[in-house]
Write a structure and sequence with these properties.
The protein is of the alpha/beta class and 492 residues long. The chain has 20 helices and 16 strands. 44% of the residues are buried. It binds flavin-adenine dinucleotide and iron/sulfur cluster (SF4).
Length: 492
């Protein structure tokens, strides 16, 4: 434990951000690093709890009090070794994780939680700057060949772990560059793409091969991939967006959020695309959907110079604080104001869109919306909604971005060709903890298996699936499991 009285002496402080009016002029990240003494103070706030609830809050089982202590002592190599023993990519989670560890932090019961996510980001950035992040040479080469389909965080984590275990790994990606949603979903202002590229370089030095512009099930036959490899990991993400099939859906100016965000990410990276430009510049924009994707559309619309931005959510406005239905240490569904919201947008809850209205040329000119109220169950969860009489109105707009989540992975092509079974939600069927599908040597991880989720869960699933593949091929595995916490305690 760094400083026994740290939690009494220091308040939670987050690093400074570039002011909103400045940062919307470009797509760069805008959260500045802590000064040395601030980082030291923030790590000193950790109480090294007897039962560190932060461990169990983190889907990766990050060993948080130990790395906080190493940071306090400025032992960067130790901090990096602890963090990287459970998390392959802290540079991603340190930037964009909703930090369930912080929601579970014991200090959070009566004071603001330890700034775990920021500390994590500083550890990995310091490790890169001190050249501590090096390719991992496996002790043995097993001679086994593994194909990973999809290069999002799940595929990348599986590939990194399997390579560490001595297998030869090739990652197949249908896009022109690896990273999945880290590359072409999440905007640069949350995660600059140089951060993804830096990690891919390390993985290439590990010996992992990346075959981009290669769609399995189209450019390579799925059964051929299975035949030519000792195991296959499917990590293709959840890619079919939820649509809003109401009158007027065919009008020009209504787009899926991902089509909009992907284009802008490509523009920022100077990557080519052939589709017609989707731009918010000078338009009245309405984003339908109140989650992360919707918030990224708000931030991107502001940077493109939208005339006005509104965000509609059909659900009720979440409470600002925990309620009795979401006590500590659960992850609370409270009101979240993102950095994109700080940059400007009018947010509305309990609004249902009933019709898109167009002009004579087939261009979107307005939405017809209605207010709704929700009936809640005993746990405070919304059950069904009813229209508020007389609340129907038109809201002028020329661009709508549909950000209502993703339903399931694309079945057509790879999944159908491989004969992989789907579960009742149409995700790839492979039990958590087993990760193996009905097709003998085919495994699945990430959003393709668990449904739309978070980067931290994708990394966790990629690591766990890799361990199961290793066990399947070798009879046992040298890879860390989620119980690494216990292993760590034995080693240190
Ligand atoms: C706009 C947006 C913002 C988000 N923001 C956050 C956030 O701030 N924090 C957070 O934690 N989570 C966020 N998420 C969720 C997070 O990005 C996902 O949960 C995570 O990326 C899932 O990882 P994955 O590896 O399973 O799949 P993905 O990242 O979706 O990667 C799948 C990859 O597989 C490739 N692929 C699919 N099929 C094939 C095939 N047949 N052949 C070859 N390649 C194929 C795809 O091209 C893609 O590159 C966000 C999601 C979106 C859409
Ligand atoms: S729960 Fe919070 S205070 Fe306790 S060990 Fe974890 S980070 Fe430190």
């Amino acid at each position: 434990m760094g400083k026994p009285t740290g939690f009494q002496e220091f308040n939670r402080e987050l690093p400074e951000k570039t002011p909103a009016a400045e940062r919307v002029k470009n797509y760069k990240e805008f959260v500045h690093p802590y000064a040395d003494d601030k980082l030291n103070q923030q790590s000193a706030r950790c109480m090294n709890c007897g039962i560190p609830f932060c461990h169990s809050g983190c889907p990766l089982g990050n060993i948080i009090p130990e790395f906080n202590d190493a940071v306090y002592r400025k032992n960067w190599e130790e901090a990096y070794n602890i963090l990287s023993s459970t998390n392959n990519f802290p540079e991603f989670t340190g930037r964009i994780c909703p930090a369930p560890c912080e929601s579970a932090c014991v200090l959070g019961i009566n004071k603001p939680a330890v700034a775990i996510e920021e500390i994590e980001k500083h550890i990995i950035e310091i490790a890169y700057s001190k050249n501590l992040v090096k390719p991992v040479a496996p002790l043995i080469k097993t001679g086994k060949k593994i194909a990973v389909v999809g290069s999002g965080p799940a595929g990348l984590a599986a590939a990194a772990q399997l390579s560490k275990a001595g297998h030869s790994v090739t990652v197949y990606e249908r896009d022109d560059y690896p990273g999945g949603l880290l590359r072409y979903g999440i905007p640069d202002f949350k995660l600059e793409k140089s951060v993804v590229e830096r990690r891919i370089k390390v993985m290439e030095q590990d010996g992992i091969k990346f075959k981009c512009n290669t769609e399995v099930g189209k450019d390579i036959a799925a059964d051929e991939l299975v035949r030519n490899n000792d195991a296959v990991v499917l990590a293709g993400g959840s890619t079919i967006p939820r649509n809003l099939n109401i009158p007027g859906r065919e009008l020009k100016g209504i787009h899926f959020a991902m089509d909009f965000l992907k284009q802008q990410n490509k523009r920022v990276s100077d990557s080519k695309f052939t589709q017609e430009d989707i731009l918010a510049t000078g338009k009245d924009v309405i984003v339908i959907g109140g989650g992360d994707t919707g918030s990224d559309c708000v931030g991107t619309s502001n940077r493109q110079g939208a005339k006005s931005i509104k965000q509609f959510e059909v659900m009720v406005q979440p409470p600002a604080q925990r309620t009795q239905h979401m006590p500590w240490p659960t992850y609370p569904m409270v009101l979240k104001t993102t950095s994109s919201h700080e940059e400007g947008a009018d947010r509305f809850w309990g609004v249902n869109t009933e019709e898109f209205l167009g002009d004579a040329d087939g261009n979107l000119r307005a939405l017809r919306v209605v207010d709704v109220t929700w009936e809640l169950d005993v746990m405070g969860r919304p059950m069904k909604f009813a229209k508020v009489e007389g609340s129907e109105r038109e809201i002028p707009c020329q661009r709508v971005f549909l950000a209502m989540g993703f339903l399931f992975p694309q079945a057509q092509g790879m999944i159908e060709n491989m004969g992989v079974e789907l579960d009742e939600r149409k995700n790839v069927k492979a039990k958590e903890g087993v990760y193996r599908t009905n097709v003998g040597k085919v495994f699945a991880a990430g959003d393709m298996r668990r449904g739309q989720s978070l980067v931290v869960w994708a990394i966790s699933e990629g690591r766990e699936a890799a361990r199961k593949v290793d066990e399947f091929l070798m009879g046992h595995s040298i890879l860390e499991s989620k119980d690494a916490v216990n292993q760590f305690e034995q080693v240190f």
